[in-house]
Amino acid sequence: MEDTRSVASLMDSTSSKIQQLQKAFAELESQRAVTLNLKWKEIEEHFHGLERSLKRRFHELEDQEKEHETKTRKAQELLEKKKAAVEAKEKVSLERLQKKRDAAVFAINSALVNYNNPPPITITSAEDSPNNAFVADGTDENPDGTVQEAEISPEVKAYPQLLKLCGDMDSAGLHKFVSDNRKNLASLKEEIPAAFKAAANPASLVLDSLEGFYPVEAPNGDGKKDGNLLGMRRTCIMLMECLSVLLSGLDGNSLGAVLSESVKQRAKSIAEGWSPLLGSLEMDACNGNSLEAHAFLQLLATFGIVSGFEEDGILKLIPMVSRRRQAAALCRSLGLSEKMPGVIEVLMNSGKQIDAVNLAFAFELTEQFPPVELLKSYLTEAKRSSSQGGPGNASPAVQDEFNERELTGLKAVAKCVEEHNLEEQYPVEPLQKRILQLEKAKAEKKRATEPTKPQTKRPRGAQPRVPDNNNNNNNNNKTGYGRVIPERYPQYVYDNRPFLNGPIMAAQAPPPPPPQTYTFSPAAAAHGNFYGNCYQYQAPPPPYFH
């Protein structure tokens, strides 16, 4: 700044210097002996031109300096904002880490307390407990996974029938009971784990319920078309999940009593029978919601037989269940947490960015896989597909399919943004506007393709009135007039007029004309294009179904 001020002062003193030079030049011209070719005005114009060029350059340098200062100030503000954002993220991460640490310490302390002070166990004989479950110490363990001592009384309040079904080891009855009460699945899932305690061998009961998961007559058939088969498969998955809930609350000895080696071997043989049937499944066809793949993975996780199968084969099945809500918990129980980055990349490359975002949040991989970028790429692909099916490139049916695909994608993205609280990073207002636009266009097109119904003609002529002798102030007749009975075909009485019955009129009257007949066209009669009053109508064109 000091250099700028000195340059400005020097430029201001230019005028005085020019005046001094003018005086010196005049004195020189008065004392000259020879006439000089130079004129003072030429010298003055030269110096004034230099002054103007210096001032112009000086102002340009000042503008550049101000612009540089503005850019520097904005850069400093941006750096401060980024620094504050990084500090906030660090603070949130530290708080989350501290919560996890406190939870881990609490769990360790609780486990130590339970280990040092085991709960008392009531031991009863086998005769006194016909529906006994399993012992906590696992001393009288049978090879088939049944235990004959230590009674546990389960608490089943809403559905006491579950106790009897589980106590009788009735897997078919259990299937039927779940199917009959499918509207109350939430309460069933809460009580089935407790009801399993009444079974002599809960694991064997669940394995028995898996019979018929693949029909013997058509093991490779399309189960999506059979509603009963779909319901049975969902029940099988739910029962395995309930058994996992029961096993998670047991200690090591009780867990070994329920999941004996014979039970695991039986579960492994079932899984080996299912494994070849999964080879016909395709990831695109499953759409991330395959019941077959889910049941197979749940079987491995519930009975702890993951080590008996190749990890690559298990990883290939994860994208087939990525859309199911149990996908993240299933991956954790299978021990695949470290493999999730690779699974998320497979989902991204196969156009399942929504599932990739859900798994990234579940396994805290959002820094490696930014959710907003994934959602934008998913929406870009959906819009690109819609633009490729423009009016000049595809038929109306194909265009409707592309619009429906874009509408589905927009709704999925909006739902994902709301579930993970990404509104600040990805506003949903433009998405909602586009959704309303597509839904309005869909409704208008549907309304345009609906067939128009012909309007029936209203009968003409006077209508007889029937007075209401019972009650003139009832709700159906508030006007005081008699109730009108509509008559579609009024009786015309022109042929029975009294003045035509005399002898004079009878002699002068011409003979009555023959009754008029109506002829129907065979083609029209075949198609029924006539109303009840014999008027022909033009049938509307058939609607366009897409």
Automatic annotation (TrEMBL):
Region Disordered: start-end pairs: 440-483
Coiled-coil residue windows: 11-95
Family annotation (InterPro entries): Frigida
Basic and acidic residues composition-biased segments: 440-450
Alphabetically ordered keywords of this record: Coiled coil, Developmental protein, Differentiation, Flowering
UniProt keyword Coiled coil present: yes
Family statement: Belongs to the Frigida family.
Name of the protein in its database record: FRIGIDA-like protein
